[in-house]
# Entry
Amino acid sequence: MATVDLNQKIPNNVGLADDRRLQRALEKWQPEFLNWWNELGPVQSAANDVYLRTAIDVSGAGWAQFDYVRMPEYRWGIFLADKEEGREVNFGSHKGEAAWQDVPGEYRAELRRLIVTQGDTEPASVEQQRRLGMICPSLYDLRSLYQVNVEEGRHLWAMVYLLHAYFGRDGREEAEEMLQRHAGDADKPRILEAFNENTDNWLSFFMFTYFQDRDGKFQLHSLAESGFDPLARTCQFMLTEEAHHMFVGETGVGRVVKRAAQMSAEHDTLDIRPHGGIDLPTIQKYMNFHFSICLDLFGQEHSTNGANYYSMGLKGRYLETKIDDDHVLTDAVYNVPIIENGKVATGEDTALLAINERLRDDYIADCQRGVDRWNKSIRDAGVDFELTLPHKAFHRNIGTFRSQYASPGGEIMEKDAWEAKAHEWLPTEDDRKYVLSLMAPVHEPGKMANWIAPPDRGIHGQPIEFEYVRLH
Ligand code: BYC
Ligand code: FE
Ligand code: FE
# Structure
């Protein structure tokens, strides 16, 4: 069950060959996916040989095979974590019932919406990152970008499989639409705001994989708790791939920070632009931007959708089964931010209605850990600067703080005063131009662009100077 035959037309561990209808439907979608990949995936990449890992097994160690692959020939497939016998719905009003192997009819619309929203982000991120390969800071980084891209493509397959297998005709229609909405498209944008943003430089890419893929981690964890077993199982396996995306983000930002700190120490100034570095204050601004748009991805603080998804048993909390409470939350409360007398204060909501906020809080705590590590490397270089996550009220477009003007410290301000300060807090046109001006491709194996430190080690035991991508 666990091992996957990569020679099948659609590699899978779901017994696709035994379900001819489903197999035919997915084989019809496959060329549409490839067309999309060729048109809107990584530009000018089709002929490159890329040292990629491909999933061959879903059970723990040894799930990956590493080899040179041309991306259009990547074995995108359908992999579900192994079934856990006797699994139950672990939360909500159906707690204790056997986990559902089919879609519960009364929750069909909600479940479809969750799967569609999750699925939509996957191709969106590939579209957002499609031009980055042209300006890679090293072959090592180019390979990381491509690895992330093919896996996001596979994550789309994961959701499309669920739509095809469990939602009949409207599932197939949703699968088509996944390839029709596009990141940043004026008429048919992607569903969630952050997936329409421009990601045209590598500092943004690393921030994206640190902060935005981490939203993926938390959302996938919540869906991995689902009482709808096929969704839970597919998300469990997606999480193993997700870990690498966040590694790319954490080490990527970490290497830019390390180089900035080195240059700052060497020249005894934070202003390292004359030396071709990305200065720490600019890194802080990019962090403010990416973190704040990602906080929006958790939805409103007070959400009946969130409460319903939970009570229906469709979407749980982070590490639901490890939490010590009744998992029904009829009487529980949760602290939520409110605005009182022009200040951010702490209010109380029912735990059910505050499900989104709780996940956002779990996410923030997880984000902070990498920031602490980056700060250690700044201190180690002997530089007096500290990166800080902005307050959750800062630069928000969903929920309580929408249409508010809060500083990164969390002070609510007048619009004019905020706007006069915004250039200190968010990347300006000039900052963006400067960062973009540094983005020139580096193609010599082992060589790094000047603004980024080399990684500590290579991929899969290979040296850093390994030819991770053979360009053609
Ligand atoms: N943008 O009740 P609320 C990943 C809408 S990332 C635009 O708070 P809910 C990945 C909302 O739809 C993980 N609209 O919303 C990362 C609702 O609309 P209606 C992606 C937004 O439903 C990197 C209204 O506002 N997975 O995998 O509780 C690379 C009321 O809001 C936004 C998921 O998101 C927004 N940010 O929460 C590749 C999991 N936020 O009903 C991949 C599935 C809210 O008024 N999705 N709205 O028309 C969900 O669980 C929920 O849809 C959300 C939103 C948590 C996103
Ligand atoms: Fe993903
Ligand atoms: Fe990801």
Summary: The chain has a mean pLDDT of 97. The chain has one domain: 16-470. The pocket of benzoyl coenzyme A (ligand 1) is lined by residues 114, 117-118, 121-122, 125, 152, 192-193, 212-213, 215-216, 219, 296-300, 303, 305-306, 315, 356, 398 (CB under 6 Å). The first helix runs from residue 20 to 40.
